[in-house]
Amino acid sequence: MSVGFTEHPKAGYVEIVVDGTVGKADFDAIMPRLEAFIAAQGEISVLKVVRGIGFVNLPAALGNAWSGLQTMSRLRRAALVTDLPWLVPFAGAAAMLSPVETRVFGLAELEEARAWVSEKTPAGPQSA
């Protein structure tokens, strides 16, 4: 599996690490754990670290996006941590469409991103 998933219950966030090809099995393994964490916590933040990305199973990714839309009201913050220059504009566009407070960090800023998603803020739409 090229996707890691770590729960941080005291800080109220999950950390998802992607490094390589992402398939349906990866999404199928993560989504129930994510949903259970949200059910236990009430509202959470998400930290996604993308070190490298290969082939992405598009139907699985779209299904994952749909599941993500259903849980968006339970998210406080979302952070993307990457040094992949082509991914940053996509993240910026997604952030403009999302009601969740979102930031992009470089890999060297991973600890800053962890601190940011750990801050307690209300879930749902954030004013800019």
From TrEMBL:
Protein name: STAS/SEC14 domain-containing protein
Alphabetized Gene3D superfamilies for the sequence: SpoIIaa-like domains (3.40.50.10600)
Lineage: Bacteria, Pseudomonadati, Pseudomonadota, Alphaproteobacteria, Rhodobacterales
Organism the protein comes from: Psychromarinibacter halotolerans
Entry superkingdom: Bacteria
InterPro entries: SpoIIAA-like (IPR021866), SpoIIAA-like_sf (IPR038396), STAS_dom_sf (IPR036513)
UniProt cross-references to Pfam families, sorted A to Z: SpoIIAA-like (PF11964)
